[in-house]
Write a structure and sequence with these properties.
The complex is a heterotrimer of chains A (386), B (149) and C (240). Chain A contains 14 helices and no strands. Chain B has a two-stranded antiparallel ribbon. The longest helix of chain B is centred in the middle third of the chain and has 22 residues. Chain C has 240 residues and is of the alpha+beta class. Chain C folds into 2 domains: 30 residues; 207 residues, Alpha-Beta Plaits (2-Layer Sandwich). In chain C, strands 8-1-10-9 form a 4-stranded mixed β-sheet. A two-stranded antiparallel ribbon of chain C has the order 2-3. Chain C is globular, with a radius of gyration of 21 Å. The chains are: A mainly alpha (386), B mainly alpha (149), C alpha+beta (240). Chains A and C meet through helix 5 and helix 6 of A and helix 4, helix 5, helix 6 and strand 6 of C.
Chain lengths: 386, 149, 240
């Protein structure tokens, strides 16, 4: 019924890929057992920097999950036919990304066995409660939508009428998951880097740039390895979406810089100075941020010039630049820098440890495994129909 | 039947494996000894009837926990009207049951139950060092089981 | 069950009065625990750490040598860090140590964000911790504007050198902080740090009682609080 058996047939290369993912997952899992036994001390986090790589990945991936709306909205609300073949890919990407988000939260928890306490003792005034609710709901929505539409495609019939309101619901829901995630940060009085109204819009802009960029990269990979290509028109339109979103995102970042550096207010300037030039001699994050800025600038050159954006070989490069630039900026940069300086004005630096990085890679591998299986199913259905 | 040997051999192996718990215990001389908790010497009546404590001491302790931690009250009126402060260490252990190794652990080890209380709550002061808590010499499988705490 | 309109209105009116009456009574007899630290008395002996040692012993706070994994309930920090907006470059107090701890805010951001209510504000004003319920998400640590909270990055027991058998330890994976000693308050005793201070620099009492010692002190001496502009309304005052 779930068509999972379609993922059990594949070429040698397919199984080699699955094997590699399994090896990375096993390594990450072994490190996680070590973390469970010994505690989160095996990570690079500290009393001053209490959120690090795990929460950074979570924040970035919520954005990727929300970006499914960028293919669903044009197709279902505005009848943009070119996206018809890739909506299911966007929805499956959302499922995989939400699964990774939940796993990253889980590995970050000090007492993971108590995770159900969030549902046993619901707390409406806590944004984390709503985050769990909205992410869970979004996972369910996208799973149902993707399954029903794919199943209908396989049977050669139109999807049932009742799926349409559910699809329409997933559109504001996608916006809400990332807004709620931004609310986790933007309502905290003690962290001035986050205490800004533009955080939620900034999150959405970077989500709508990085998500579709990843989707373009995935479509490129599929055409290379799975002999399935998205239409030229669809990729072009996605490229336009990435361009606009990236421009808006860079604009928002520049707005933050202006407010801080024109007002000269220390609590605004210090975290940003730490990010780009360092504070009190500590500048471990600065090279990362400058790389992110350079990647962003390079990506904008490739995206804004129509000749480059329409080039089939350059567009994936631009998307890769966008993805990595935003992965650094939204993930590591934004999350870690908010803890510098500490509430008592102390600068404590953060760098992930090897076990921490391996656990993170393990979670990414789980997400890629889920994505591989789901995409294999989708493409098998398409192959059988062709 | 060409593969008679393999089939019968495999069946025998399987039967041996499936009945392992029975003949292993018999040959190792393990007797079906029940748990043997050391009963308190100076007190005859617990804060609740013995039968209730046998089946539901966890519920009582959870109730005490919620009361002390979240509602701020510590006074417990037992079924027989006596008053006790709600405290695992100072009422249960210090007054009557002694060290957890002599009482609590006996049944818990037999039933393979490891409540996480002892990760934080201290054993009776009669065992003067900080007892209970995490054991750092663990195998992977034990780590997996312990991870639930 | 048939009920007349008159009877219904009467029941409604009585219930309403009961609820509001109860609230009014609570407001009159309310307790709001607070603390006033006389910085001049505290500075008489600048290297004194008696309150810190007493608290750490009474509550089995571990002594972890790695600064990254430290657990701190109460500790000392330089004035210019604690009161960044009050202390300028010409102030003689810049490097002087001030005692810092959880401020037990009236409007605590940590309570607002906790997803399981493992930290909550009691009726007597104390922001308490339930270490059984804490899932270790560290959201409260991110929310606290004062840096008062510590997370147990590993099992604290190997680092507790002189355990107090009358108080539990905590386990790895939960957040902890100063709790204004509710286990002592219920027995009618002040917090450990108050008793331990040789200069009697720490005054603890009921801020809601206008005749309490702490209210008298606050009425007669100039005092400040940490980051009042954030609206948290801390219950810890510093007499300067």
């Amino acid at each position: 019924m779930l068509m999972l058996e379609k993922a059990l047939t594949g070429s040698r290369r397919y199984w080699l890929w699955i094997l590699c993912l399994a090896a990375v997952i096993a390594t990450g899992f072994a490190c996680y057992l070590h973390q469970l036994h010994y505690g989160l001390a095996i990570t690079g986090m500290s009393r001053d920097v209490t959120w690090g790589l795990y929460i950074a990945q979570f924040t970035f991936l919520v954005g990727v999950a929300a970006s499914a709306v960028m293919v669903v909205l044009p197709y279902y609300l505005h009848n943009f036919k070119a996206f018809g073949r890739i909506t299911v890919l966007g929805e499956f990407l959302a499922v995989s990304a939400v699964a990774m988000c939940m796993l990253f939260i889980f590995v970050d928890m000090g007492q993971p066995a108590r995770v159900l306490n969030v549902l046993l003792y619901p707390t409406p005034h806590s944004m984390m409660f709503w985050d769990m609710v909205s992410l869970g709901g979004y996972l369910l929505l996208n799973s149902v939508i993707a399954y029903i539409t794919l199943r209908a495609e396989r049977e050669g019939v139109a999807p049932p009428k009742w799926i349409k309101p559910i699809i329409v619901l997933s559109i504001p829901w996608a916006v809400s998951i990332h807004t709620v995630t931004a609310f986790l940060y933007s309502g905290l009085p003690g962290r001035p880097l986050w205490l800004t109204a533009i955080l939620a819009p900034r999150f959405l802009a970077s989500a709508f740039a990085s998500g579709p960029a990843l989707l373009i990269l995935l479509c490129t990979a599929l055409s290379k390895f799975a002999k399935w290509s998205a239409s030229r028109e669809a990729l072009d339109k996605l490229g336009v979406i990435v361009t606009y979103a990236m421009v808006i995102n860079v604009f928002f970042v520049l707005m933050e810089l202006f407010t801080a550096f024109y007002s000269h207010i220390p609590e605004h300037t210090e975290p940003l100075r730490y990010m780009f030039v360092g504070l009190e001699g500590h500048s471990r994050l600065a090279p990362w941020m400058w790389v992110s800025m350079c990647l962003a600038a390079a990506s904008l050159v490739l995206l804004l010039v129509p000749r480059y954006r329409h080039n089939q070989k350059l567009l994936p490069v631009a998307c890769g630049l966008v993805f990595f630039s935003l992965w650094i900026d939204k993930g590591i940069g934004l999350i870690v820098a908010a803890f510098v300086p500490s509430p008592l004005g102390v600068v404590t630096e953060y760098a992930p440890t090897l076990p921490e990085a391996l656990i993170s890679l393990g979670v990414w591998a789980v997400g890629l495994l889920i994505l591989t299986v789901l995409y294999r199913i989708a493409l098998s259905v398409r192959e059988a129909l062709a | 039947m060409r593969d008679r040997g393999i089939i019968y051999g495999g069946l025998l192996l399987f039967l041996g494996f499936a009945t392992l718990p029975v003949w292993h215990n018999l040959t190792a001389g393990v007797t079906a000894k029940g748990p043997n908790p050391r009963l308190p010497v100076n007190a005859k009546q617990c804060v609740a009837p013995v039968e209730f404590m046998r089946t539901s001491h966890m519920s009582l302790l959870l109730d005490w926990r919620e009361n002390v931690v979240r509602r701020g009250g510590r006074d417990f009126t037992a079924f027989n009207g006596k008053h006790y402060p709600m405290s695992l260490t100072s009422t249960c252990l210090e007054q009557c049951h002694g060290a957890k190794a002599d009482f609590c652990d006996r049944c818990h080890n037999y039933a393979a139950v490891s409540p996480p209380c002892w990760n934080c709550h201290l054993d009776s002061p009669r065992d003067s060092k900080v007892a209970g808590g995490a054991d750092h010499r663990l195998t992977w499988s034990a780590a997996l089981l312990r991870s639930a705490r | 069950m048939k009920i007349t309109r008159h009877a219904f209105l009467r029941m409604g009116g009585v219930s309403f009065l009961a609820v509001t009456g109860r609230k009014l009574l609570d407001a009159i007899t309310r307790t709001r625990w607070g603390m006033a630290i006389d910085t001049a008395k505290c500075l008489k002996e600048p290297n004194c750490t008696k309150c810190i040692e007493a608290c750490n012993h009474a509550h089995n706070v571990p002594e972890i040598p790695d600064r990254r994994h430290e657990i701190r309930w109460i500790w000392k920090a330089p004035f210019e860090n604690v009161f960044a907006s009050e202390v300028d470059q010409y102030s003689p107090l810049r490097a002087a140590p001030a005692m810092v701890l959880c401020n037990h805010c009236d409007d605590p951001p940590c309570v607002r964000v906790c997803p399981t209510q493992a930290t909550w504000k009691r009726e007597d004003g104390i922001v308490d911790m339930d270490w059984h319920r804490c899932i270790g998400c560290r959201y409260c640590v991110a929310a606290c504007p004062y840096g008062s909270r510590s997370f147990n990055w590993m099992d604290p027991r190997p680092y507790i050198h002189n355990p107090n058998p009358a108080f539990p330890t905590r386990t790895k994976g939960v957040v902890e902080k100063c709790t204004f000693c509710p286990e002592r308050l219920v027995a009618g005793r002040p917090p450990v740090c108050v008793e331990a201070c040789p200069e009697k620099a720490i005054v603890f009492g009921n801020l809601a009682d206008p005749h309490s010692e702490i209210r008298e002190l606050l009425r007669t001496r100039r005092h400040i609080r940490r980051k009042p502009e954030l609206g948290t309304n801390p219950s810890v005052f510093y007499i300067v």
